[in-house]
Amino acid sequence: MNKKFAAFIVTYNRPDILMDTIQKCLDQTRPPDKLMIVDNNDNDETKNKAAQLFPNVAHLKVGHNSGFAGGGKAGLEALAKEGYEWILWADDNDPPYTDDTFEKLLQLAESFGSNCGQVGVVGHKINKRTGLVIRTTNEELEKGDYLEVDTIGGGMIKIIRGESVLKGIVPEAKLFFGFEDLDHDLSQKRAGYKILVHTGLFLDLRKKWNRMNYKRATVRKKDEGVLWRDYYSIRNSLFVMTKNRYYMAVCSILAVSFAKSMMSYKHGLRYGTLVTRNTLKAWRDYTFNRFYKRNV
C-alpha cells in the first residue's frame, strides 16, 4: 500500500474531547490512511475508551505528560519511520474545520513540489525584531490559492512532510508547551522547505470566526489559574529567538515581559507578584538552559 497520509493526535486526560476529534478526522472526504493516538496519560483510560469506539485507531503510550512538544516529536518520528509521506500533527481539541479540509490541504501539498515542508489552514510571518507574528492580511489571502508563511500554529491543521522528519526536523521535546510549533517551523525554513497555507480555507475560517476586521486586543487581566502559561511563553520564546539568532527579538521579549510585570501590579500586589515571579523564573531558566515543567 502506498503510505501517503497519516495523522496523530496528542492527548492528555481528555478522552471525551479526543473521541469527538477522532470521529471528525475519520469523517473527512480524505481521511488518513492511518490514525494514531499519542497518549500522554500515565493510565489506560483513554486507551480503553478508544479501543471500544475506534478499534482500528493505533495507540502510542508515552507514559508521562510530555506536552504537545514531546508528543509531537514522538508521533512525527513514529509515523515518518513507517514511511508516510504526509503527517498531520494535531491536538485533541483541534478537529478539522470542514469535511474536506484534509483533501484540500493534501491537494495543495502535492501540487507544490518536493520543497513544500508543510501545509495548513492558518499561518503568519514572524517579525524578526520583535518575535511577534505579523498578521496575514485579507488582501494577501485574496491574491492566490496559497500563501507562503513562516509558521502554522498548533491546532491550525499542520500537515508535515515525512521526509523532513527523517532529516531530523522535529519539535524540541524539552519545550513541553508553547512555541514548539514555531521552533519546528523555523527549523524547516532553515532547511529550505516552504510552509504554505490554503488561502480559501483561511478566509472561510476568518469569516466563520468573524475575524475579517480583527484588531489586536489590548492586554487584559488574566485569570490567575492560567498565569502559569506565561512562564512557558517567555522562556520558550526566548529560546526560539536565540536559536534562530533573532537577537533583537530576544531584547524585545525581555523588555516587554519586564514592562508587563510592572504594569500587572495595578491589579493588586498578589497578582503583580504572581506575574513577576513567573517572569523571573522564565528569565532564569532561559539563562541557565533549564527546561522544567512547572505548575502543570
From TrEMBL:
SUPFAM superfamilies assigned to the protein according to its UniProt record, in alphabetical order: Nucleotide-diphospho-sugar transferases (SSF53448)
Residue span, Glycosyltransferase 2-like domain: 8-130
UniProt-listed InterPro entries: Glyco_trans_2-like, Nucleotide-diphossugar_trans
Protein name: Glycosyltransferase 2-like domain-containing protein
